[in-house]
Records
---
Amino acid sequence: MATGAIAGAVAAVTTKQMMRIEAFGFQNQALSTPMELQTIFRMASTAKMVFTVAALVLLQDKKFRLEDEISKWVPELGNRRVLRTPGSELDDTVPARREITMFDVLTFQLGIGMYLAPQVTPLLRAMMALGVAPATESVPFGPDEFMSRLGSLPLAHQPGETFMYHTGDDVLRVLISRIAGQSLGEFLRERVFDPLRMIDSALSVPNSKLARFSTCYLPQKDAGNKLSVWDEADGRFAKDPLYPNQIVSTVSDYINLTNMLLCEGSFQGRRVLAPQSVVLMMTDHLNAEQKARSPAPKAFWEVRGWGMGATVYTQSIPRGPGARSYSWFGGFGPHFIVDKKRGSSIILMIPRVVQGDKETELGYEYELNTYRDILS
């Protein structure tokens, strides 16, 4: 914050023996509104584990099986065509060898999305043109229209062939609502947020809580430059979206969520997930061939895989995360890691849009410093 790179942050570390949470800087820089422990943040991709928890609740309710074909609930994505190569033009396709399953969606192996390393293809350009590509902005149409537009496109890979990021989460949210027979917001509140006492988590921020909602900033162009506002508290998240693709939350709420994972699915004596569901979330579901087909930043797949809702470390890092630690970051600044080996969680929330690897460095730096100074 001394260089002006961020306006403020809330940081936390928990173990079985302790919980430490601190707030720094401002939630609104122009008004000098201090960051507070209960400041509300936009979660972006750190919400993926929330949606995964919701889906696994339905799995436990026997509303679906992992091998079920999603066309049962999302016929828009049945009978797929697949590009001959991931970089082929949209009309150069072959039939899909099989239907997309629930397991494919939960593990991001459904065959469409983006790579973790930038790769611009005709399919990605078409997704952008149709408004179904991964993006920070709200989608201006509803879930049915989203699925219809996505269903008009071929897949980049055969189902189960490799990992592609994000779009599985878009599909999963629609599946949750259709399988549950209720809106996503209602299901999250009844089956995830209320049981975990995530009292400030929702699809949007009500008027009564806007005073605690952080302003979100764009990154500095150069060190020392003033931060520009991307979204004010009464902006994009002040009402429920047409297509629910984000949530808002607090560090305290996410501590409850991560503690549930550390306690094998139980929270304050109440079972939210079965232990085997937690194992599903925190297990690497990708083999070496699948990783080789999925471009990613250098060395990413050497130490990580993908579970359900987040990445999973496949080996221990010296003075860092243990093997099978579960972690991810969000495009609006949040970062978390759940380390089963140490029985710890680390959470950092920053209200700043991620536009490149540079904006994720602070989260990883805080994580490693916490391992060195507190968890070593």
Note: The chain is about 25% helix and 15% strand.
---
Amino acid sequence: MSVIDWNSIKPSFNFVGWENYQRIFTSFRFQSSMRNMLFFSIFFIAGVVISGLSLAIFLDRKVRGKWIYRNIFLFPMALSFVVTGIAWRWILNPAAGVNIFLEKIGISPQWYTDTAILFGFDLDQIEMGIPIALFSVILAAIWQMTGFSLAMYLAGLASIPKEMKEAAIIDGANSWQIYTRVVLPQLKPITFGLVLIMLQISLKNFDLVYTMTGSGPNFVTDTPAIYMYEATFKSNFYAEGAAVAIVLLVVVMMFVLPAKLREGRNQ
């Protein structure tokens, strides 16, 4: 479908080659969505890995009532992205939610309605940089998936033999050295798998962003998945939507296939 001219309600199957791809790659919206996908993936993955690992190390130590903390941290993972998106849309609503309290101290952030770009510079049709509005979506996504990261790291920490830590203590290692030189190297396979899973989620992100912000003003929170959906099912640009879908598929495969090949060689 991506190489035909079916871009209306009436089906048309005339071959047009790369015309649909040229259209999307030169469009402002597609370039904006690819920029957003890039920065969302970077900050989302880093946030999930760091927060999950930090909480796992905290719960791995002798903390009173840690089963309560574990349940609290794991709770968001039980929710769907749709529920999370609706909840955080209200929480970060510029005219309600947490802003009611922030306004009392003179702070009125726009959250997901802000169109500013951090460290922006012109690149083709878009301003390349970090959209401020994207941070609200990243925050909600990290809150949702930290429980998954926590569960993986807790399982990894439980599998590390206590003898290794005891040997490090005998050798004079302090707590920082035990975690940086003994524990963290043992968690590399888990971190690799976690990054791969979160990468797939971030590249295909749709439901959270769609319910929370949509494409946003000036497409500052748009994603290729939302672009594909709206082009195909709202504007009836079936061939154009198919081209976006193929590009998204190729991007996902660029990261997944090397990882699968590496996993196969290790086995």
Note: The longest helix spans residues 28-60.
